[in-house]
Design goal:
Two copies of one chain form a homodimer. The first copy, chain A, is of the alpha/beta class and 327 residues long. The first copy, chain A, folds into three domains: 41 residues, no CATH class; 223 residues, Rossmann fold; 39 residues. Chain A has twelve helices and seven strands. A seven-stranded parallel β-sheet of chain A has the order 3-2-4-1-5-6-7, with helices on both faces. In chain A, helix 8 links the parallel strand 6 and strand 7. In chain A, helix 2 packs across helix 3 and helix 11 runs antiparallel to helix 12. The longest helix of chain A is centred in the C-terminal third of the chain and has 25 residues.
Chain lengths: 327, 327
């Protein structure tokens, strides 16, 4: 059944694709089988991360870029990573108002994913979903993260190209969040360029990035951050959109020309996937009936401060090891 | 040397405590030894998570609460989890302006931690830092997260009591982030109660939480969210601060009376610690000289879409298993 679900997703059945993504996201056996089958067919899409502080206008920008790409006949998928609902556990911003103009277009596929509750981590789930969309023929995949936390930055880091969006008029705390995001940026978009202060914001940003490039040399052994392009755009008026899409395509062309291995982002994606699966396998083994009781006892002993967590972890590793040696 | 560092931290030497926290955060051998020694002495502090969307006024609130607790003679520690600097990799908001009034008070200890780059995860690092502060005699520990992402919510979940802060006047996206945070809230503070709309915001919030409690029953097997208290406060004028500190102390008293095992949060802390250490141990084993080459080959094969990540993970687990059986 699942093989045919993968087949149908590949042949353009969007409902089959949606169901398949649910299987993959829930890490079911059917989802794992389908992903194994589809994985060799992926690797052709350009994965573009779009991230930024709340209020920067990421969603509007992604909708506008999608419109531009569709006008050129390209199939576009969007993975929107949203804060989780306290009620259903699902994604909250699911039906994004800005994307509704694309709702009847079968060559635009939008998937909302909740930010929480991913066995093996959010980055691993995102990579898996993107691989399925890639195998289903979407050549341009936007990964939009509304949040500003550690996982969201990691998600940005697994994209081939990462766009950090900022609005001209934001507070100190948001500025600091933005600074944290610059490390992963290939392109910084000063959005809402129709507003006062946009040109000044872009100039400040370019100055800040220059300082960053210099200071880093002094900081020693840390990798020098790449120097991102700074572009002005207005998702509302459409200003700067062709330039942004052009910049994305140029980066993709350079990346493709550089070789078939997919580059750093592909290695990061592989690492996120594999470490996610390893963590899940180890956790599942510890929850098996033969070990569950000892796992629970060990957790309770750490919670009561009777043993330290390092000794506890070593004890659980021994438990896995002993069983393995017996197999 | 490290044992004496732990001893000095315990006896009130704040510089020793700061150095020890660096060792623990960097997961050095000395840090691990010290944490093993100090862990049995922890378990007495009340860990209070304070989180909320950017601009909600969390830092000001923590500073005001710290002032109240200090006036009652209590020792207070703050772990402030900040966006990471793109230049140094360190925490950005380090010297928080609001906390500077406490800078000369040795019974207030403030530690900024970068949100990124924690081997084994941010939650595990936070739990470890809190255990050290706890063993050093701080009875009230605030864990403040500026971010709004998955990891930040997980950090909130490892606190004994979690306070979600919101300001009355915030946009849609921030509202959605807030909704995602309500799941972990024990107390919701509508901050900036001096501003217009605060009473209405509190009323809306209470109504929303009532709907949530009902809908969840229909949603089936998910655990019903606890119904948080909603309080109005103004960190600026001090209004509502005694009530908030009182509410925290009442919750702690109830938790203590309920038993010595530390409750759900202590189990979550144990789990975060142990799974962080397990992930770190597995990753370290795969990076050992005997396995590093095969690990790199496997990653590259997944990056090039030659094998799928599940087969790759199973191959790496076999690699660990074979070596273990031989030991």
């Amino acid at each position: 059944m699942s093989a045919s679900l993968a087949e149908r997703a590949r042949s353009g059945d969007r409902r089959a694709l949606a169901r398949l993504l649910t299987e993959v996201e829930n890490r079911t056996t059917a989802g794992e089988q389908a992903l194994r089958a589809l994985y060799p067919l992926a690797g052709r899409a350009h994965l573009v991360g779009v991230t930024g502080a709340p209020g920067s206008g990421k969603s509007t920008l992604v909708a506008a870029l999608t419109g531009k790409a569709r006008a050129a006949g390209r199939a576009v998928a969007v993975i929107a990573i949203d804060p989780s609902s306290p009620i259903t556990g699902g994604a909250i911003l699911g039906d994004r108002v800005r994307m509704q103009i694309h709702a009847t277009d079968s060559d635009v596929f939008i998937r909302s994913m909740a930010s929480r509750g991913h066995a093996g981590g959010l980055a691993a789930s995102t990579v898996a979903a993107a691989a399925v969309m890639d195998a289903a023929g979407f050549g341009l995949i936007f990964i939009e993260t509304v949040g500003t936390g550690q996982s969201e930055v990691e998600v940005a880091a697994i994209a081939d190209t990462t766009v950090v969006v900022q609005a001209p008029d934001m507070g100190d705390e948001v500025q600091a969040i933005k600074a944290g995001l610059l490390e992963v940026a290939d392109i910084v978009v000063v959005n809402k360029s129709d507003r006062p202060g946009a040109d000044r914001a872009a100039a400040q940003l370019r100055a800040m990035l220059t300082v960053g490039a210099h200071s880093d040399r002094a900081a020693g052994d840390r990798p020098r951050p790449k120097r991102p392009e700074v572009l002005l755009a207005s998702a509302l008026t459409g200003a700067g959109m062709p330039e942004l899409l052009g910049a994305l395509d140029r980066r993709e062309a350079v990346r493709r020309a550089a070789g078939a291995d997919g580059g750093d982002a592909a290695l990061k994606r592989a690492e996120a996937q594999i470490s996610g699966i390893l963590a899940q396998r180890v956790a599942a083994q510890l929850r098996e009936p033969a070990r569950a009781a000892q796992r629970a006892t060990t957790l309770a002993a750490v919670a009561a401060h009777e043993i330290d967590p390092f000794s506890a972890a070593d004890r659980l590793l021994e438990l896995l090891r002993a069983d393995r040696a017996e197999d």
